[in-house]
Design goal:
The protein has 82 residues and is mainly beta. 10% of the residues lie in helices and 45% in strands. It contains one helix and five strands.
Length: 82
Amino acid sequence: MTEKLTTLVFKLNISRAAYLQYYRGRARSVVVISEDGRTVSFPANVLRRFLSHEGIQGKYVMHYDEHNRFAGIERIAEGKCR
C-alpha cells in the first residue's frame, strides 16, 4: 500500500533573531499561509536545518500524508514548483 502525500508550497522570511525565539522554546509552532491560501501550523524544529546567518528565507514545499501528519520539507527554487 502506497501512501499518498499532499504538498503545500509557501515562502518564509524569518530573521535569525526571530527564529532563535523558536529555538529557545519561547514559541513552538510556525504558522504560514500557502500559495493556494491554506493556513498551516507546524513545529518550528523542522526548519532548523535551513537556518543560516540571515535566518530562514526562501520557498519551501511541505509534504504530509492523508492523516495530515508531517512527512517532510524541502527548500525549492522559484522555478521548480509543481
